[in-house]
Write a structure and sequence with these properties.
263 residues; alpha/beta; two-stranded antiparallel ribbon; 11 strands; 25% strand
Length: 263
C-alpha cells in the first residue's frame, strides 16, 4: 500500500496524476490537506484538534481523505489511522519546483519527511508549475521508483527529492543524481498599504549564482530531471541503492513509455 499526500490540496491536478500512476503499482490511499498549504514546511498541528473527512476518490478505488491541517499532519494521520498498512509515502506532484534551500520550507518535502521519520521509504516529487503536460512524466517516474522500492532494488531508509525541469519531455536530457544547492534564495519584506494601515509582504527571490555540476539547480537549468537523496543531504545517512546506473535505467524506461528516441 502507498500513502499519497501533497501540499497543494486535495483537488490539485498533481495529486491526481501521482495517485493515478502509483495505483498501477500498489493500492493507493490519499491523505492530503483540504486546502492549499504551500511553504508550510515541516509544521504539525499540536494545539487544536484535527478534523478529517472522506472525499470523493480521486482515483478509482482509492480511499481519499481531506485533512484540516498541514501536509505533515496529513501523513501522520494517514500512517497512524487511515493507511496503517502503507509501506511507502509519496508526496506531490507539487506545482513548482523544490530545489536547494526550498526543501527546508516545502510542504511537499515536509509531508514526505513524516514517512521517512517512521522508517518508510519516502519520495517528494515536484514539477514546473506551468508545465501540466509533464505531470504524466512525473507520475510515471514516481511509479518506476515505487516499483524499485517494492522489489528491494532501493533500500527502505530512503528519502528522495525529485524535480522535473520546465522543458517538455521531448527536450529533457536524462536523469541526474544530485546534491542540494545552497544559498539559493533570500526572503525579503516589501512594504505596502491598504489605505488604512501599513503591511509587509514576504517575497522569496532567487539568488543568481553559479552552481556545481552535481547540484540540483545545475541539473534543472540544463534540462535534466534531478533526484536528490535527502537522507544523505540532511541526515548524513549512507547513500545506498540510488546511483547513476539506476538513473540511466529509469530514463531508458521513460523513453520507451513516452516514445522518444535517445539522443
Amino acid at each position: 500500500m502507498i500513502l499519497v499526500s501533497n501540499d497543494d490540496g486535495i483537488f490539485a491536478p498533481g495529486l491526481r496524476a501521482l495517485s493515478q500512476a502509483l495505483s498501477s503499482v500498489q493500492q493507493v490511499v490519499v491523505s492530503a490537506p483540504d486546502r492549499e498549504q504551500s511553504a508550510t514546511g515541516t509544521s504539525v498541528t499540536l494545539r487544536v484538534p484535527l478534523r478529517v473527512r472522506a472525499a470523493d476518490a480521486i482515483v478509482t478505488g482509492a480511499d481519499t481523505y481531506a485533512v484540516e491541517g498541514s501536509p505533515g499532519d496529513s501523513v501522520i494521520l494517514g500512517l497512524d489511522r487511515l493507511a496503517q498498512q502503507a509501506s511507502m509515502v509519496f508526496s506531490g506532484v507539487n506545482s513548482g519546483q523544490n530545489l536547494g534551500d526550498d526543501v527546508l520550507i516545502s510542504g511537499t518535502v515536509g509531508a514526505a519527511l513524516q514517512g521517512y521519520l517512521r522508517g518508510l521509504p519516502s519520495v517528494a516529487v515536484s514539477a514546473e508549475a506551468m508545465q501540466l503536460c509533464n505531470l504524466p512524466v512525473a507520475g510515471e517516474l514516481a511509479a518506476l521508483l515505487a516499483r524499485h522500492i517494492a522489489c528491494g532494488r532501493l533500500p527502505k531508509d530512503l528519502f528522495l527529492n525529485v524535480n522535473l525541469p520546465p522543458e517538455p519531455f521531448e527536450q529533457m536530457r536524462g536523469i541526474k543524481l544530485t546534491t542540494l544547492s545552497h544559498k539559493t534564495h533570500i526572503d525579503t519584506a516589501q512594504e505596502g498599504t491598504d489605505g488604512r494601515r501599513e503591511y509587509y509582504w514576504l517575497v522569496r527571490r532567487k539568488l543568481e549564482r553559479e552552481y556545481a555540476e552535481e547540484s540540483d539547480l545545475w541539473a534543472i537549468d540544463h534540462a535534466f530531471i534531478s533526484i536528490t537523496p535527502l537522507h544523505t543531504a540532511l541526515f548524513g545517512c549512507p547513500d545506498k541503492g540510488t546511483d547513476e546506473a539506476l538513473c540511466a535505467e529509469m530514463w531508458a524506461e521513460l523513453l520507451s513509455v513516452f516514445d522518444k528516441s535517445p539522443a
